[in-house]
């Protein structure tokens, strides 16, 4: 009774302070275990994301669910509301453009507590459950990948496909794709899912897979949260390696660099001993990047001098590769690596190698995060731009962007690596270029208020627009990864031949446009216009 009175007071306070035209009893129907909070700390945290580009958008309340049923009750209340409110699922808050925010509804905080006392009941979402014989793990949609890894390693197993940064939620990455250097071999994370529990925009809890509710299953994967909130995912596992040989080699010629990358990903069907397990790369346009970003890789006593390597057009390219192994096969790892490196055409004497535990390799970016946090450089605006570029146009992109628009300042890492389209399931909602091989180009810049114009948010944002405009004018049909558009037609153009199906399924599973309104794909409707 005391908890219900607290909820009533909290919701009534919402009506007074923000003018919410919502009957408090509608939210009270959620029950006392739903952990609905209007604590200012909760609300403030849910109003921001990693991008810090959209400005604070405080939700009306924040929910801390402990089960799929909690989420379903909330969405069902929104769906049946006479006035209507939106619901957005938030994981670790790593969105860039406010995709997990909502100013006119409730944020469902899927990944732990983000602060405040709320009305916590002490209940928590289920822990990961590993099935060693079947080689899969069932995880809560808000579970962070780092915790999935820790749970599965206890059984000597690990997921096959990763993101570079592990402090992301399972539901968040599966709503996009989830990519890293393993994608050429295993496909994105959405290609390694066996089953999902999803709460639709009507508040229905569905279990879906290839065999059951298959259309929903494929739509949700890469579906940007438009059809449902992922509350459970069944992830495929493989035996976990113990160690990783991590190698970086440098190139001054772009065509040689991409030719070697494309050769390496063409080996995906070969035995494990005859291919690398991870293929990525990045672009270097100034010495500060290679000697400072993830600086623990390179020796500070022997810094890399770009000028000494005679880069073509002032740009260097770094191929980043890794090979997993077990202690029992350590005697053959040197020979396997050497055999693969002999077939590449990098700059002689530019090989940088380190060896580390498998967990440390997968969690490598977190170490960089801790360094940036210690310097106050983490919680700054991140005008990131992630593009899928078709293989046939990647040389044009290099000439126009890497050697043109960017100049010699980057304000952050620029990743570039190819993937095989046949590793992506065409039935998912994810969109990729119409070529067998395409590249991720990720400009992961940070805006700094340090007086340098090239580091300012305005400069970097304008540069992103300039890059997109160049691609359009040069006939480079790029697809945004983690897409952000502001008009209906831009979204239609993004999905192209997948749009009709996307729209149809939205109308079927979320007809009131309640879910993930921060994506700005569909405009939420109130009851009057819906009827």
Brief summary of the model shown:
This protein has helices at 2-18, 24-28, 40-46, 68-80, 145-153, 170-174, 183-186, 214-220, 254-265, 287-292, 330-341, 358-362, 364-374, 394-405, 457-473, 488-495, 499-509, 527-530, and strands at 36-37, 61-63, 86-90, 105-109, 129-131, 136-140, 157-159, 193-200, 205-209, 228-239, 243-251, 278-284, 316-325, 352-357, 385-390, 414-420, 437-443, 479-480.
Short descriptors:
Vanillyl-alcohol Oxidase, Chain A, domain 3, 531 residues, Uridine Diphospho-n-acetylenolpyruvylglucosamine Reductase, domain 3, alpha+beta, 18 strands, 4-stranded mixed beta sheet, 6-stranded antiparallel beta sheet, EC 1.5.99.12, oxidoreductase, flavoprotein, disordered N terminus, glycoprotein
Overview of this protein structure:
Residues 54-240 form the FAD-binding PCMH-type domain. Residues 1-21 form the signal peptide. Its EC number is 1.5.99.12. InterPro entries: Cytok_DH_C_sf, Cytokinin_DH_FAD/cytokin-bd, FAD-bd_PCMH, FAD-bd_PCMH-like_sf, FAD-bd_PCMH_sub1, FAD-bd_PCMH_sub2, FAD-linked_Oxase-like_C, FAD-linked_Oxidoreductases_BP. The structure is a single chain. With 531 residues, the protein is α+β, with helices and mostly antiparallel strands. Among the domains are: 129-239, Uridine Diphospho-n-acetylenolpyruvylglucosamine Reductase, domain 3 (2-Layer Sandwich); 243-480, FAD-linked oxidases, C-terminal domain (Vanillyl-alcohol Oxidase, Chain A, domain 3, 3-Layer(aba) Sandwich). The protein is 31% helix and 20% strand. The protein is built from 18 helices and 18 strands. The strands form 4 sheets. Strands 5, 6, 7, 8, 9 and 10 form a 6-stranded antiparallel β-sheet that branches. It has a 4-stranded mixed β-sheet with strand order 1-2-4-3, with helices on both faces. A 4-stranded antiparallel β-sheet has the order 12-13-11-14. A hairpin with a 4-residue loop joins strand 8 (193-200) and strand 9.
